[in-house]
Input
Amino acid sequence: MNKKRTTLKDIANVLSISTAAVSKALNDDARISVKTKKAVKQVAKELNYQPNHLASALRKGKSNLVGVIVPRTNSSFFSSVVENMEEVLNKAGYNIIITQSNESFEKECKNIDALLYTQVDGIIASMANETVDLSYYEKIKSYGIPLILFDRGENDLNVDYVGIDDYKSSHMIIDHLVSQGCKRIAHIGGYRRTRIFNNRIRGYIDAIKKHDLPHDDELLIESSLTLEDGRQQIEKLLALKNRPDAVYVASDYAALGSLQVLKERGIKVPEEIKLVGFGNEPFTSLVTPSITSINQHSEQIGKLAAETFLGYLEKDVVVQSLNKIILDSELIVRSSSE
Amino acid sequence: MNKKRTTLKDIANVLSISTAAVSKALNDDARISVKTKKAVKQVAKELNYQPNHLASALRKGKSNLVGVIVPRTNSSFFSSVVENMEEVLNKAGYNIIITQSNESFEKECKNIDALLYTQVDGIIASMANETVDLSYYEKIKSYGIPLILFDRGENDLNVDYVGIDDYKSSHMIIDHLVSQGCKRIAHIGGYRRTRIFNNRIRGYIDAIKKHDLPHDDELLIESSLTLEDGRQQIEKLLALKNRPDAVYVASDYAALGSLQVLKERGIKVPEEIKLVGFGNEPFTSLVTPSITSINQHSEQIGKLAAETFLGYLEKDVVVQSLNKIILDSELIVRSSSE
DNA sequence: TATATTTGTTTAATCGATTAACCAAAAGTA
DNA sequence: TACTTTTGGTTAATCGATTAAACAAATATA
Output
């Protein structure tokens, strides 16, 4: 019920010393005697002293908060990235503020404003699909705080980026499907304007060429990659006079939608058509047949993004440049493709 | 590159007025002339002034931040609750800080400390399964800021709570299974010490009695409700000499584990054994057969929890009492039970 | 005209912690 | 003894926004 929280002053009064001495004692300043330190810490404990973060942050010009923006938290990938990021940052004395854009540009802008307003010391973000206008991200840079992107990045911003090699991942998938005897491989990809999806598409095309397989335009489809759109797009492929014998879908959700339609149509997976997703969402191993997918090493991405942020702390001026950390991905082969 | 942010002083200097006048002008104080207000706002825009949240929060003793603690964000239920909570709070000028306990008591305590340290104006939480010791939650109360619990609550804390009627939900499930002709219904429930799981168990027992069905001890199992444990516990039920003809699992994840085993064993669902989960996770409609489940109205829960918090703002002293908002749940019938 | 009121703004204190600059007393040194 | 250095603090300014109190000028009222 004692709404009044104890402050440095309260401790100082009890011991009849200055608040400065108390502050230094609590921060283990060398100029404070061991005896005083002990006494101060003792009283601090007795009065249940909790430092006022706002005051110290204001004075030090540093909030020890890091803002995080993800498209959504209820995806195992982002949730795992955030969890690992948090672990690293907590150890370094930072707390994180998680916000989600729900893939909306407008919401993303609001989040950026809210984070800047809260005086975060840096922002780690994965961009919404919708985002094309980069002015809000430029705003972050103009604040002079570090900005680190992961997974969904953008070269034009010239900031640090952590992600996997999407181009190479496509090659891994196509190589695998070819090794399984596939000759006509389709790709339900994301929108080309999003860098990662563009890379997956490029990888798909180049890998197809590498194996001297047909690369008909009709086999390459751009999609929003939702479950529902996965259903729609597979229908198009099934309607072709010359059906594919394998489909590489750039997202597990859309892959699941495709799988549902295939099953409803009585088309055997993997016997008639092989299917590969992307992202290694937990449900890929839960559905029947389980879906082959790409694991993106969310733990590593989270940790590296956090460490990249921490790397800026030593420097007194933040000068960012396009500094990419690209991780290898991992193909998890499951029933849908073998 | 202008690392220096503009402050009230900068604006004041440009116009040769006091910072007090600038502050009042920006806050539309009645005592400032329209002319001055216009000029101030104009300059503020030109200099791209962004108020320093730390300073105003310190002065006003109010951070406009609300802390949220959830067991994990990558569950559709919690993610949806948080999303709706955020919407309501944002409209009222509040931002939220999301933290996850990962069902760990230790992590939860750390989160509480971090949130209090950040000077949040209130905390909305759903407790970790592990949590039995309530001292950290008492600590929140002792800070004099509102604490609102949802889904995973605890009567002893005497604070506001928003959730569904678990007892009644069990009745809905049993009623449904009985109407489908089931005569021997098992329950893989959570740990009794968690209130919501205890209520589900009580509801199960009472509903069974209501229908004059056998309530053997062997049909009621306590579980951690993970997917893996769902696999383990169904094995026990299958090993019984007198197998159940329906299983009500208190979590969708555990229900999925059970379903996997049933399918592996070649036991037909729902023909031989009917299955019902709890929580209406998206995958329940994605797997084959789709799983009947309980929808918990996450949107409502999120909104109501947020509104409950906002309700405290008018009062000058926070006096909390056990004030429960119990929502009706909804049974979503799918293939696994009919 | 003299006084009261309103308007619009300034002054200065404040929130709580930190820190540069200063200082007295104790200890060391020549 | 006289001077320097070290020890262990204190004083006061500061971070940036807010706000109670004060105040001058303009306007209203008697």
Notes: The longest strand of chain A covers residues 65-70. Chain A touches chain B through 49 residues (CB under 8 Å).
